[in-house]
Amino acid sequence: MNESFDWDSLTFSLTPTETMYITETEGDEPWMPGRLQPYGNVSLSPAAGVLNYGQGLFEGMKAFRTSKGRVVFFRPEENARRMQRGADRLKMPPVPESVFVDAVEQVVAANINWVPPSGKGAMYVRPLLMGSGPILGVAPAPSYTFLIYVTPVGPYFKGGVNAIDLLISERHHRAAPGGSGGVKAIGNYAPGMKPSKEAKADGLC
Fold first, then answer.
1. Side-chain-side CA neighbours of residue 120 (13 Å)
2. Which residues are catalytic?
3. pLDDT tens per residue, the chain (205 residues)?
4. Is the N or C terminus of the chain more exposed, i.e. has fewer CB atoms within 10 Å?
5. SS3 59
6. What CATH number was assigned to the domain covering residues 7-162?
C-alpha cells in the first residue's frame, strides 16, 4: 500500500497509476491476452473509427480492500458480458470473458499499492474497447484496441448519498428506441452535459 499517499483526500477524480493493460486485434482475428505497460498516452490515427464515428465502449467497476487486507471485485464477469453486448451493437469483436477478467486481475495486481485501505475508497477500473484502426467511410474499423487503466477514487458523491432535485427536459434526449442508449457507448454521455450544465446554471438541480 502507498503509505505516503493521503487517502483521506481522495475524490472521484483521476490519480494516474503506474501500469495499464492493452491488447489489439485486426478484422476477425481472435482476441489474444495482452500486455502490461506503463500508464501513458496511446497513439491513434486521426482516421480511427473511435474518433470519427464513435465506435467505442467503456466499463467501470471497483476493486476494494477488505478489513483483512484482501482485494476483492464485485462480479467483473457481468461487466465483461455487458461490454460484449455493447460490442455486438457497435459492430466490434467482443472481448472474451476470460480475457476481460484476466486483464482486470492483472492490472489491479500490478497497481496493488494504489488500492485504498478499507473504508478509505476503492480502486476504479476503467476498461475501454475502441475501433482504433483508420477508416474513412462509415463502416466498422479494420482493427481494435482493448485497454484498462485504474485509479484510486473516493466516493462519487462526497459526503454520502443525499436526496437530489431532478429536472426533466423535453428538449434533450439521451436515448431513443432502437438506438445505442442501452449500451455503454462513449457517445451516450456527452449529450447529457449541456442540459446538466444549463440546469445547474439555473439553480434547478
1. 18
2. 184
3. 777 899 999 999 999 999 999 999 998 899 999 999 999 999 999 999 999 999 999 999 999 999 999 999 999 999 999 999 999 999 999 999 999 999 999 999 999 999 999 999 999 999 999 999 999 999 999 999 999 999 999 987 666 667 677 777 778 787 778 888 889 999 888 888 888 888 878 776 5
4. C
5. coil
6. 3.30.470.10
76: part of which helix (H) or strand (E)? helix 76-89
Domain ranges of the chain: 7-162, 163-205
Sign of the torsion formed by the C-alpha atoms of 8, 2, 147 and 41: positive
d(CA 147, CA 127): 6
Alpha-carbon gap, residue 149 to 126, rounded angstroms: 5
Cell numbers found for residue 70: 484482501
User: Helices 97-110 and 76-89 sit at what angle, rounded to 10 degrees?
Assistant: 130
At 204 the three-state DSSP class reads: coil
